[in-house]
Design a protein that fits this description.
175 residues; 6 helices; 30% strand
Length: 175
């Protein structure tokens, strides 16, 4: 099993739109209803005008999901909400193919992404994720990699749990 990441391209937007509207993803991503609205959210990232780096997750060469990272400091409203300080990246993951959910891929993807992308940056010493407590599968995946809960907060009127992993944490499981 080979997990790899490639930058999101214009040609991937239709597939990403399809993934975020699938029943197992939609409750957690709450995407825009039309493709044009959705595409506007991602075109700036694809074209390098937005500080979020979005990648397609590939498993043995097959596109199966998406993962993104960004410096929390690049989003002042979110930084104010989570208050994590400089040098902290954020990460969001979705596995778009329903038949691959629940097979242990989430932790494998997160571990590889943290090792190969997030912590490959010298200026990043920690990574956080905001996960809704009802998304138990996601909470387990992050925990298996070494993320630990920091605190709960409310975003967009919904409860979230802030999870964190430090580059040098003894609990880090970045295999």
């Amino acid at each position: 099993m080979t997990i790899s990441f490639r930058p999101l391209a214009h040609d991937d937007l239709a597939l990403l739109f399809e993934w975020v509207h699938r029943e197992h993803v939609k409750p957690w991503w709450r995407p825009e209803d039309t493709f044009d609205e959705f595409a506007r959210e991602y075109v700036d990232s694809v074209e390098g005008r937005d500080p979020t780096d979005v990648y397609v997750v590939e498993l043995d060469g097959r596109s199966i999901g998406a993962i993104q990272t960004y410096l929390v400091a690049d989003y002042p409203e979110w930084e104010t909400l989570v208050q994590v300080g400089p040098g902290v990246a954020g990460v969001d993951l979705l596995i778009g193919e329903a038949e691959l959910v629940g097979r242990g891929l989430g932790p494998a993807i997160l571990g590889a992404f943290l090792r190969d992308v997030v912590f490959a940056r010298a200026d990043v010493h920690a990574c956080v994720a905001g996960v809704e407590p009802a998304n138990e599968r996601s909470l387990r995946a992050f925990a298996k990699v070494g993320f630990h809960p920091v605190r709960d907060y409310v975003e967009d009127a919904l409860p979230h749990r802030l999870l964190r992993i430090d580059r040098q944490s003894p609990a880090t499981n970045l295999k």
